Amino acid sequence: DQLERSACPTCGSCSGMFTANSMNCLTEALGLSQPGNGSLLATHADRKQLFLNAGKRIVELTKRYYEQDDASALPRNIASKAAFENAMTLD
């Protein structure tokens, strides 16, 4: 019983590597989402700050690409070979 409650403590949290939560962990490992995106419980109060920060980051990256012609802001440049190796290590 305690193991089950620890593995899946609330909605939006599952430790199996086959769920949307695991996809959040992988996008975090790739550098395509905010730190904590895959590990912060869906019902945690800090989740709101996480998505507000993500929105600010999206605007920042968009401005870097469109206003400063900075291609390093594109997902294809963020998700490097090293980032994919990091994600495979996580998985």
Q: Please, could you describe this protein's structure?
A:
- With 91 residues, the chain is mainly α.
- The chain has one domain.
- Helices cover 59% and strands 0% of the residues.
- The chain has helices at 2-7, 20-30, 46-68, 75-78, 81-90.
- The protein is flat, with a radius of gyration of 15 Å.
Q: In a few lines, what is going on in this structure?
A:
This protein has 91 residues and is an all-alpha fold. It is 59% helix and 0% strand.
List keywords for this structure.
91 residues, mainly alpha, 5 helices
Lay out the secondary structure:
Blueprint: H1 2-7, H2 20-30, H3 46-68, H4 75-78, H5 81-90
Helix pairs in contact: 2-5
SSE succession: HHHHH
Helical/strand content category: mainly alpha
Helix content: 55-70%
Q: What coarse outline follows from CA principal-axis ratios?
A: flat
The chain-level mean pLDDT equals 86
The radius of gyration over CA amounts to: 15 Å
Major sheet description: none
Number of domains: 1
Percentage of residues in strands: under 5%
Number of helical regions: 5
User: Could you tell me the number of beta strands?
Assistant: 0
Give the low-pLDDT segments: none
What gap, in angstroms, lies between the N and C termini?
A: 26 Å
EC number: 4.2.1.9
Family: Belongs to the IlvD/Edd family.
Protein name: Dihydroxy-acid dehydratase
Keywords: Lyase
